[in-house]
Amino acid sequence: MSNWAQTTNRPSESRRNKLAAAEIKSTLFDTAGALKLGRKHRPDYLMVVLMIVLSFVGVVILFSITPALTGGDNDASTKFMLRQAMFLVAGLASFFVASRVPLDFWRQHGAKLFVIALAICFVLPLMGALKIPPAYCTLGACRWISLGSLGTFQPAEFLKFGTVLFTAGFLAIRCARGELNSYRKTLIPLGVVVLAALFVLAIMQKDLGTSISLAAIVLVQLIVAGLEMRKLAAILGVGAGLAILSIIMAPHRIARVATFFGQGDATADYHINQAMIALGSGGLTGRGLGQSVQAFGWLPEAIHDSIFAILGESLGFLGLLVIVALFGLLLRQIISKVDYIENIYLRLIVAGVFSWIAAHVVLNIGAMTHLIPLTGITLPLVSIGGTSMLFIMASLGLVFAISHYTMHRKVKAEGSNEDASPISGRRFGRSRYANRSRVR
Amino acid sequence: MTNQSEQLSRASRLTLGLFLILAIFLVRLFYIQVISHEEFLAKANQMQISKRTINPERGQIYTKDQNGEIVPLVLNQTVYTVFADPTQVKSPEKVKQLVTEVAGSQVIKSNFDKLSSTSLQYVVLARQITHSQAEKIQEADLAGIGLQSSSRRVYTEGKLANQVLGFVNADGKGQYGLEQYLNTELSGKAGLLQSVTDVRRIPLTIGVHDVSIPAEDGTDYVLTIDRSVQAQAEAVLQEGLKNVNSDSGSIIVMNPNNGHIMAMANYPDFDPSDYTKVTDATAFQNHAVSYAFEPGSVMKTMTTSMSLDLGKINPDTTFTDPNCVQIDDAKICNAEGDEKFKGRTFTMTKVLQYSLNTGVIWQLEQIGGGDITKGARQTMYEYFHDKYRFGQTTGIEQPGEVKGTIFSPDNVQGNKVRYANMTFGQGVSVTMVQMATAFSATVNGGTYYQPTLIEGTLDKDGKETTRDPKIISDTVVSDGASRDIRKMMFEARRGSWPTADGGYYVGSKTGTAQIYDDTTRTYSKDRTTGTTIGFGADKDGNAQYVIMVRIEYSGNQGFAGSVAANPVFTKMSNWLAQYEGMTKP
């Protein structure tokens, strides 16, 4: 515990920065070297309600298309529904457990979890290539661990959870040392780690959607930590360059992009077309629950990546309006914590969870509505049964635990420093630290 | 810039950015789901709704055997087409071996080469294989091989009654004969199964577009054709044609008391199960209804019936034969060799027996009070056109029936000469079925029954619903005139062929007519139509059957009617008299 706290003891470069860093450090740890949490109060139950409502929507829509998935076999339907209910229970359990784990536990072990997850993600494709049993591959992508009758486990979701913890911890220390905007100390080391993870996900596992959401997690955490806008621009530039490179290097990604521009391969075209038909045929009020036709094999991945289109077909525009609003509300509930928490580590965790869920929502709905290319990613909470649900619920549990420690007022750091980090500017493009550097 | 203390926090900006994106999504969703709803719904329906036609079973055709039992004539059989999807075929060699082994001659060998093609998905390997062959293919369960069922007609009696039946073409449409005439009734009504389906085209129970209209199978018909009579008629006709080296002829056997056609055959004919082999489409035609010709002297029976009915003559009325008569600018004589009769006096029965043209012209003159007046012609037209219904279709259930030609006296063509010729069957054209039906009316007591091939329909339990004979007129001729003409024909026939009928009460009249060639606009010199029409009656002289034979004759052994047609009539009549168990007088 104290080990991690001691890492912030290095001197910062400038005097001003030293002061700022000291201030961050003072909000980060208490005298015992544990996380400084503030007064515990009533947590954010609205967030939990929203989470349960959304996962309930998922269960309802899933049950409504059960006949389509089981071919009308009653026994199979019952089994299927039971299984999905168990997944939901498992998800809620993981939320509960995560919300009860002391926050210091994550601070201590977050980095380890990240390393373990990354190692699993790295080994999996190698095992898949060698056909070693628990590794489960489809269409040449080895992203899953087979759990027999329980289904499959996708360690990439674990990795995202680990990334949220690791980056939050890493950036919190850099902030406390006043080194956030240092290429040498912060950005390049973090960049190397993130690129390694992206290599494992995007190249080895061929999982573009997860790669993008992982990059989004780190990026949003950097922004919230107070990254200088120029450096953010530089990172985005490098990221875009790498993205283009990865697209050019992988034929199936070129195909997906081509699909998006209306001239791709038949399979991906088919998926998007079917999603659009599902949405469009739903109309204003939808065909009604249980009346989805597209679920009967027409729309690929109906219960996972395409559940949004099935929702649109069944409940219509009005139904989706409510669901999008629920997501908006949930995400707002999460991100709003950032402005009310002094402890930078916890703020970065909240930011990471926010960007994780937001990335899934945007990538999923954007693909289903043919606004961005298809990346193959679940709609959080609503797509029942995936590993993604377990970890998204766990991450919400984390945010719920943090919601015990919000302050009444917005964090107001020395007048202009609302997120309490003297190093990072609150305003885009104008960090105090950056100004100072330039003045100096 | 530095003074913007009211600026939003980064978190708030992220929230704002997210909400902007979500708003864009909602606009997009509104566009897809509300504005473009109809377009996508149409796409969805087109894709999700499958319409499947349920093919009805084509009506089957039945006939009756000698015991009056209903027996099938035309049935349906399910046959299979073997096809391959080369993209799915794993072993072209195995497929080739199996299909060749099972389907044998029905294999389309040239298509085996296409089995290794990767661009094709449908290659037909064999057609029209039977159910048992199809089962063997199915049992082998080779990848990429499929079977498609279809229905084909099976003719249990082979070629029997081929032109009456017609055939069903590859599109399932009836061609010629009953198959064409009754196509709508035989076809039935296709059913429709419209349903929302899953991606494998399996119908779902959801959806408001579901339609299920069952197919209505076609009507099953029982023909008036008697299997044995038809077979005999075909055999007798064929043999008779062979005997006189002819290649064209027809025969009709009908029941004069209800208009039922018991047999109807023509030559040349065809095999309906192998109709594609036919090169000349005339073989498909039922000439008994579709070919009008000048019948010749058989018409004298019709003229005589008219005169009897009008009371102008009786069987024993006599006239003196002048051999030739001058009518306007034409000199009309009896047939060659009849000069010897000049100046002799004949009864009207003898006029029929010796087939004296002058005798029937004389009858017409009697109707006009000694001349072929307009009134006489008018009367004859009323009989021939209105009562005998020459120049009108009979309505028999066959396609392509022709009316024949008869000129009314009001027509410039309907002059004295033509009417004089018409009394012995020249200058007027009729079909076999017109002639036989009109003749039936004159020998059955004066009732014109519409000729028919349909006795009734069969329901699904095999129960027959018979149709009532359709009476067009029951005052064609009087009962007395009918009795007289039967007697006259019976005596005339016995006068010519005393022993031909083995004692049965049979009357007949032959005819030999020149064939008018439309292209040269003259009568052919070496080709004649030989006809015989007659009846067989029970011991009381009540007609039980009517037979008409027509044979095109090019020989020179005598008059075609006597030489070519009469032997066929006699043979048919003798067989039929026994078959029907007729009593002798």
Any chance you could write out the topology, listing elements then pairs?
The complex is a heterodimer of chains A (440) and B (585).
Chain A: H1 2-6, H2 15-28, H3 45-64, H4 66-70, H5 74-100, H6 103-129, E1 135-138, E2 141-146, E3 152-153, H7 155-176, H8 183-204, H9 208-225, H10 229-249, H11 251-260, H12 266-282, H13 307-335, H14 344-368, H15 387-402, H16 432-439
Antiparallel strand pairs in A: 1-2, 2-3
Helix pairs in contact in A: 2-7, 3-5, 3-13, 5-15, 6-7, 6-8, 7-8, 7-9, 7-14, 7-15, 8-9, 9-14, 10-11, 11-12, 12-13, 13-14, 14-15
Chain B: H1 10-35, H2 37-48, E1 49-54, E2 61-64, E3 70-84, H3 92-103, E4 123-129, H4 131-140, E5 145-155, H5 162-165, E6 167-168, E7 174-175, H6 177-181, H7 183-187, E8 191-196, E9 211-213, E10 220-226, H8 227-243, E11 249-254, E12 261-267, H9 287-290, E13 292-293, H10 299-309, E14 318-320, E15 324-327, E16 330-333, E17 345-347, H11 348-354, H12 357-367, H13 374-387, H14 416-422, E18 430-431, H15 432-443, E19 448-449, E20 454-458, E21 464-466, E22 471-473, H16 479-496, E23 505-517, E24 522-537, E25 543-553, H17 560-579
Parallel strand pairs in B: 2-10
Antiparallel strand pairs in B: 1-8, 2-3, 3-4, 3-5, 6-7, 8-9, 10-20, 11-12, 11-25, 13-18, 14-17, 15-16, 19-22, 20-21, 23-24, 24-25
Helix pairs in contact in B: 3-4, 8-17, 10-12, 10-15, 10-16, 11-16, 12-13
